[in-house]
Amino acid sequence: MNRISWLEVPDEHSAPEGVRKLWGKAEANLGFVPNVFRAQALNGEQFLAWWNYFNLLVNKEGQLSNTDRELLAVVVSGMNRCVYCAVSHGAALREYSADPVLADTVAINWRHANLGARERAMCAYAEKLTRTPEAMTQEDLTPLRQAGLSDPQILELVQVVGMFNMTNRISSALGFAPNAEYHAQARPDSQS
């Protein structure tokens, strides 16, 4: 197996039982175990706590659509230059949006993507919160509200942006490498 982290990575024999169960679910649902699951399993209890919140925030039905959440993930990950998250969530955005051009463009510069006013407001907010969190003001919510977002949607947007800023830092700090499967996922000419 190629290197997936700069730290040691537990195998099926040394990973905690709860982590192995999650790996099995991922294998059944995705056809592979995301490298982030393997790399963070070194501290199994913390990984499972992170996963429970991440899963609740990103993968369950919430205030925002799956496409919205993945759009935010790709904007934040692109700004932070987090290879793992930009690649893996770019794959998810391609899948949910059915638009590989959109996902690839957002990963580089969301301003060049074909986005509506609502998505542009969300991306601009995510960018400011990622780059200059100390400069956030109450007025930053106005464009989101003008674009039709409710307060529960805004709260979820902030939580998603916060989650990806944290996850980007962990992934980048430890050199997490994305699975090869993500590169081909949801591309019209791929075998996946």
From TrEMBL:
Gene3D superfamilies, per database record: AhpD-like (1.20.1290.10)
Protein origin, superkingdom: Bacteria
Residue ranges occupied by any Carboxymuconolactone decarboxylase-like domain in the UniProt entry: 46-127
Coiled coil ranges: none
InterPro entries: AhpD-like, AhpD_core, CMD-like, Uncharacterised_peroxidase-rel
GO molecular function terms noted in the UniProt entry: peroxiredoxin activity
PANTHER family associated with the record: CARBOXYMUCONOLACTONE DECARBOXYLASE-LIKE DOMAIN-CONTAINING PROTEIN (PTHR35446:SF2), SI:CH211-175M2.5 (PTHR35446)
Protein name from the UniProt record: Carboxymuconolactone decarboxylase-like domain-containing protein
